[in-house]
Amino acid sequence: MTHRTIFKLFYSLIFICSLIASTVHAEHSHQHIKVMGNDVYLIVMPAEMIRGHQKDHPESLMHRENRVENRSQFHISVGIIEVKSGVRLKNLDVSARIISENYKGPYKIMENMQMSGQPSFGNYFIIPGSGAYQVEVKIQYRNKSDMIIVTFDQAQV
Length: 157
Description:
alpha+beta; Immunoglobulin-like; 9-stranded antiparallel beta sheet; 2 helices; globular
């Protein structure tokens, strides 16, 4: 197996394990919130994991204009599943921001992306400091006036 194949398998395994763990722990997880008939899942990973992709790998091109070389940079992705149908939603406008004790960042657009072949939303974020923080996610349906705001409490960076 090539380095690229191994890294792709590793990345897919992390994503699948995160979704399984989130599903198992449901309401008690820091990575899953059930709201307004949707399951909202959050994945936060160091940006270095994506930067390790070779240039021809699809994830190496993700959110290219938002990339900054900084150890405090993380890739945040959100998956949204409609509970009733079991369908992963993709026609949404999603944005997020980081909030900590001394910092309240601006909302940043979460771009459409594919993770392990599944539609999701993501972007790079700077998470300043080393304390606990929150990820606040705004989900706007394109054909409705409904908006969902969910806040994920995260452990220390």
